[in-house]
């Protein structure tokens, strides 16, 4: 809270502040949550948590901070790429990449 009792600076009108789109938030949260379940980062975190000499709080906060930084890098990279490459083409590249990973996984299974 700012000293004037508002959550917004005087120079910023309420209409200029972007409201949270909860539908998008829940979609992204659900997709990332499901993708991370059983992922190597979760397995590594579980392994760190098995060490009886390490605080579980340390494991939780370190893993959480790492995921936040990795997500921030993803948002930054996506934002920068979208400045130079049409969103439609980024979707094509991402789709082809995922299909390629799928074929690679099936081939090596």
TrEMBL record:
Top-level taxon in the UniProt lineage: Bacteria
Membrane-spanning parts: 20-38, 59-77, 89-107
Localization, UniProt: Membrane
Name recorded for this polypeptide: GDT1 family protein
Membrane topology: Multi-pass membrane protein
Keyword Cell cycle: no
A Gene Ontology cellular-component term: membrane
Pfam family, one: GDT1
UniProt keyword annotations, A-Z: Membrane, Transmembrane, Transmembrane helix
Broad class of the protein's primary localization: membrane
Keyword Transmembrane helix: yes
Family: Belongs to the GDT1 family.
InterPro entries attached to this UniProt entry: GDT1-like
Gene Ontology molecular function: metal ion transmembrane transporter activity
């Amino acid at each position: 809270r700012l000293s004037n009792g508002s959550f917004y600076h005087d120079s910023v009108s309420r209409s200029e502040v972007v409201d949270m789109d909860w539908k998008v938030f829940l979609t992204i949260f659900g997709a990332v949550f499901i993708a991370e379940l059983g992922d190597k980062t979760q397995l590594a975190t579980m392994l760190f948590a098995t060490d009886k000499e390490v605080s579980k709080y340390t494991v939780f906060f370190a893993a959480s901070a790492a995921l936040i930084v990795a997500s921030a890098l993803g948002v930054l990279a996506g934002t920068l790429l979208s400045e130079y490459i049409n969103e439609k083409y980024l979707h094509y590249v991402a789709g082809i990449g995922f299909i390629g990973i799928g074929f690679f996984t099936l081939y090596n299974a």
